[in-house]
Amino acid sequence: MKISNYLDTKPSKERPGVIKREVITAKDGAPHFCMRVFEVEPGSTTPSHSHPWEHEIFILYGQGVVIGEQGETSIGKDSVIFIAPDEPHCLVNTGSEVLRFICLIPLHP
Description:
This protein is mainly beta. It is built from no helices and nine strands. The strands form two sheets. A six-stranded antiparallel β-sheet has the order 1-2-3-9-4-7, with no helix packed on it.
């Protein structure tokens, strides 16, 4: 079992205004999924991208929009997002405070 504070995980800078913490990974004995916590500063965005695996997002704090194949959808605290494999997507912080979310992705050998 691993119990920690997400702030104890060293952040990596994804791009200006976006940091990521990989809080649970294969190094922790989790062979199937990676749990990441992102923080997006006001006015910043995650990169627009797609990949061949699904992922799930839970918004912890803040507000913004998620941009996908269906256009822009407003998101905020307690929103849950499922992104299908190969769907282009990004998250944009449209609020005045940090947009913080958990993102789960499968690990690939």
